[in-house]
Design brief:
Layout (H helix, E strand, L loop, with lengths): L3 E8 L6 E11 L4 E11 L4 E6 L5 E3 L13 E5 L1 H7 L2 H5 L31 E3 L2 H5 L7 E5 L9 H14 L4 E5 L3 H13 L2 E7 L4 H9 L3 E5 L3 H10 L1 H4 L2 E2 L8 H15 L7 E5 L4 H16 L8 E7 L4 H7 L26 H10 L3 E5 L1 H15 L5 H15 L9 E5 L27
Parallel strand pairs: 8-16, 9-10, 9-12, 10-11, 13-14, 13-16, 14-15
Antiparallel strand pairs: 1-2, 2-3, 4-5, 4-6, 7-8
Bound molecules: pyridoxal-5'-phosphate.
The site of pyridoxal-5'-phosphate has 18 residues, from helix 5 and helix 10.
Length: 449
C-alpha cells in the first residue's frame, strides 16, 4: 500500500483572533483516492484594543502612528486580556518555536508575522552567583544574574528596538532617529538596517567608543553631540519637521516598552511562572522597569501568575540619581539632574519622560530606590569577573553593589530570591590595560607564575 499526502490551505481572515483554514487532505492509495475536506481553526492572536495616555488615561486608536500623548506623556498599549485569557494558554507560549522574546508575539502589538524584525534573539540565561554571592553578603543560589548581554547587539535594547522597528515597518515609516547613550542606538541601527529603514543616531560625545563605532557599522548615520542624552533628544525632537524622521526616543513612542515587557514575561516563564522576591534594575529612562511591571500586571490579569509581585528596586549612580532622589523626597516627578556624570553610561539619564511611571512601579511594588558610587561599581565588576567569570557591564555591576547595600541596611533578606539585571555585555566597556609581557628571546623566569 502506498500513501501520498498533500495539503492546501487557505486563510479566510487575517487579523482576528482566530483564522479559519480550509484544509484539503488528499489521501491516495492503490485502491482508491479519497479527498477529505476538513475545517480546522488555527489561531492568529492579536489582542490590541487601543493605546492609553499613562497620565490621563485618555484613549487613542490602535493601528495609527503615535508619539507621546497630547499631554506629552508616554502611551501604553492596552489589550483585550479577557479574550487573550480565553484563547491563549501558557503551554502555547511554552511550546513556541519563535526565537527568544518573539515567543511572546501573541501578547505583543505586531499583528503580522511578516513585520517581525528578528536578528536571532535568544532567551537570556539566569546565572546564579556562586563565590561572588558571598562577597555580596548573600547566599549562593539566591542571587541570579539575568544576562541580557547575550542578545543581538549585546544588550537588552534589542528587545525594545526590535518591537519599535517592527511597528515602524508595519506603518511604512522610512526614517528613524534616536538619542542614545550607546546601546539603544546600536540596537536601533541594527534592526533598522535589517528592516531596510534609514536610521540616524545622536550620542553624547563621551559615549563609549565601541558603541559609537558599532552604531555606525550597523548602518546608522551617526553623530556625536557635545552634551548629554537630553541634548541629543532635543535635536531629534526639533528636527522632526525638517527631516520627516520618526522619533524613537525612550518612551516617546509606544512600542519599545512592549519589547521591554518581554523581560518580565521571560523571567516569569523561566522561573516556572513564579516570580522572584526582588528585582534590582539599573535605571536610566526606566523602560525596562516600567515594562516588567506592566508584564506582571498583564500576567496577573491572565491568571498565569499568583501571589505577591516582586519588589522593584531602581538602582542609580551618585553622579546621576534623579529618580531615586525624587522617590526619597516623595515626589511624583523627578526634576532634571544637573551635571550628570557616571561611568555607567546607560544610567546617565538626567531627566526621564516616564519618571512618574518608574516611581509608581517602585511604590506599588513596595520597592525602593538605591544610589551607588562609581568606584564601588568598578570594584564590584572586577570582583565578580574574577570570582565567578562573569564580565558584567558597569550598570549590571551597579545592581550588585545595590544588593549588598540593601542587605547591609536590612532592606532585603538573604533568603529572598533576587534578580540582578546585567543589561549589556561587559565586553562593550573599557577594561584595565595589561602591562605584563614576556620576551620570547630571553630566558623565561618560571618562578613568577
Ligand atoms: C547597559 C544599560 N543598563 C541600563 C540602562 C537603563 O535602561 P532603562 O532606560 O530601561 O532604564 C541602559 C540604557 O541605555 C543600558 O544601556
Amino acid at each position: 500500500m502506498r500513501s501520498d499526502r498533500s495539503c492546501n490551505t487557505r486563510a479566510t481572515s487575517k487579523i482576528s483572533g482566530l483564522v479559519d483554514l480550509k484544509v484539503k487532505v488528499h489521501l491516495t492509495s492503490n485502491l482508491k483516492t479519497k479527498i477529505f475536506e476538513r475545517k480546522i481553526v488555527a489561531k492568529n492572536h492579536y489582542y490590541v484594543t487601543h493605546l492609553e495616555c499613562s497620565l490621563t488615561g485618555e484613549h487613542y486608536p490602535a493601528g495609527q502612528i503615535h508619539g507621546l500623548s497630547k499631554v506629552q506623556r508616554p502611551l501604553l498599549v492596552r489589550y483585550d486580556l479577557e479574550k487573550m485569557k480565553s484563547e491563549l494558554s501558557r503551554s502555547e507560549i511554552e511550546n513556541s518555536n519563535s526565537p527568544g522574546f518573539w515567543r511572546y508575539a501573541p501578547m505583543l502589538p505586531v499583528a503580522e508575522p511578516k513585520n517581525r524584525i528578528s536578528l536571532g534573539e535568544i532567551v537570556t540565561p539566569l546565572i546564579p552567583l556562586k563565590q561572588s554571592a558571598l562577597i555580596l553578603g548573600g547566599q549562593k543560589g539566591k542571587i541570579l544574574i539575568k544576562d541580557e548581554g547575550r542578545l543581538p547587539t549585546g544588550s537588552f535594547k534589542a528587545r525594545g528596538l526590535s518591537l519599535a522597528v517592527s511597528m515602524a515597518k508595519s506603518f511604512g515609516i522610512n526614517h528613524l532617529a534616536i538619542p542614545t547613550n550607546g546601546n539603544a542606538g546600536a540596537a536601533m541601527a541594527a534592526y533598522a538596517s535589517q528592516a531596510g529603514i534609514k536610521s540616524t543616531v545622536f550620542c553624547p560625545e563621551d559615549t563609549p567608543d565601541i558603541n559609537v563605532r558599532e552604531i555606525r557599522l550597523q548602518g546608522a548615520k551617526t553623530y556625536k553631540v557635545n552634551g548629554l542624552i537630553n541634548d541629543c533628544g532635543k535635536i531629534v525632537g526639533e528636527g522632526k519637521e525638517a527631516t520627516g524622521w520618526f522619533d524613537v526616543s525612550t518612551l516617546k513612542e509606544p512600542y519599545r516598552i512592549e519589547g521591554k515587557k518581554t523581560m518580565g514575561l521571560e523571567l516569569a516563564e523561566q522561573l516556572g511562572w513564579n516570580l522572584p522576591d526582588v528585582i534590582f534594575y539599573p535605571t536610566g529612562g526606566g523602560t525596562g522597569l516600567i515594562g516588567m511591571w506592566k508584564a506582571f500586571q498583564e500576567l496577573k490579569s491572565l491568571g498565569w501568575i499568583k501571589g505577591k509581585l516582586p519588589k522593584m528596586i531602581a538602582v542609580q549612580s551618585s553622579g546621576c540619581a534623579p529618580i531615586v532622589k525624587a522617590w526619597q523626597e516623595g515626589l511624583e516627578h523627578a526634576p532634571i539632574w544637573e551635571n550628570a556624570q557616571t561611568i555607567a553610561a546607560g544610567i546617565r539619564v538626567p531627566v526621564a519622560v516616564g519618571d512618574f511611571l518608574i516611581i509608581r512601579a517602585i511604590k506599588e511594588s513596595d520597592g525602593f530606590g538605591i544610589i551607588v558610587d562609581d568606584n564601588e561599581i568598578m570594584n564590584m565588576r572586577d570582583k565578580i569577573a574574577k570570582k565567578d567569570g562573569l564580565l558584567l557591564c558597569p550598570e549590571g555591576a551597579a545592581t550588585a553593589v545595590a544588593y549588598k547595600q540593601a542587605l547591609q541596611r536590612g532592606m532585603i533578606s538573604d533568603s529572598q530570591r533576587a534578580i540582578l539585571y546585567n543589561c549589556a555585555s561587559g565586553l562593550k566597556y573599557p577594561m584595565p590595560a595589561l602591562f605584563s609581557t614576556i620576551n620570547k628571546n630571553e630566558q623565561v623566569d618560571y618562578s613568577i607564575f
